[in-house]
Amino acid sequence: MVQENLFDNVWEDTRRRIRAAGINELSVNKHLMETQKWSFGSCVTFDHGFEIENDNNEELATALWRAVFQSDSSVPDRKVLHLAKYVRRQMKLLEDLSREDFLDGKIKWLDPPASMAEDMLDDSHVRLWRPTYSASGRKYYWNVYTRESRWDPVVEDWESDEMLNDEEKK
User: Fold this and answer.
1) DSSP of the chain
2) Dihedral over Cα of 144, 146, 149, 153: its sign
3) How far is CA 150 from CA 18, 63, 79, 129, 134, in A?
4) Does residue 124 surpass a pLDDT of 70?
5) Distance (Å) of CA 100 to CA 6, 80, 91
6) What is the pLDDT of residue 156?
7) pLDDT of residue 137 exceeding 80
8) Band of pLDDT at residue 35, cut at 50, 70 and 90
9) Can you tell me the distance from the alpha carbon of 145 to that of 129, in angstroms, rounded to the nearest whole number?
10) 162 falls in which pLDDT band (50, 70, 90)?
């Protein structure tokens, strides 16, 4: 029951986001079918990765590498393996969560792996603030590291530096 409701909510959220992105109403179903094909394939791959527990998270890491890192060969293996370990630990917490706590949103989220946080902070062009849409379709911004959200766009530190450098060149 919870799984079905969660899927239905994610599906409806996807539909709202596609419409909020300004996609022509006639092509919404086409985009939904593409999203469904990708999401079902990802779910099957993630399920397979979770089923195999004695492979040092390699199967789950492969699924994450494809879905999260978009098969980017420049992403270090250690980063992907750290993410897989984090996801497996987070899933264990979710599995142990009571139904009531889940429905009440009392979910304990682990801090991101230190190596990933360091990578995010060390990369001078990583966007910590990502745009997303509320249920009503209003655009807002959230920080992938601190999980803070804001309505107004955020200028990343490196963007400010680049703007200053561009103005200095003029």
Assistant:
1) -HHHHHHHHHHHHHHHHHHHTT--HHHHHHHHHHHHHHHHHHHHHHHHHHH--SSTTHHHHHHHHHHTSTT-TTS-HHHHHHHHHHHHHHHHHHHHS-HHHHHTT--PPPPPPHHHHHHHHH-TT---EEEEE-TTS-EEEEETTT--EESS----HHHHHHHHHHHHH-
2) negative
3) 21, 31, 28, 9, 11
4) no
5) 14, 32, 17
6) 56
7) yes
8) confident
9) 9
10) very low
Q: Alpha-carbon distance 66 to 89, whole Å?
A: 20
Terminal Cα distance for the chain, rounded: 61
CA distance 43 to 52: 14
Phi, psi of 140 (to 5 degrees): -140, 175
Q: Which of 56-65, 109-118, 155-164 has the highest mean pLDDT?
A: 56-65
Which structure tokens are listed for 48? 């397979």
pTM of this prediction?
0.54
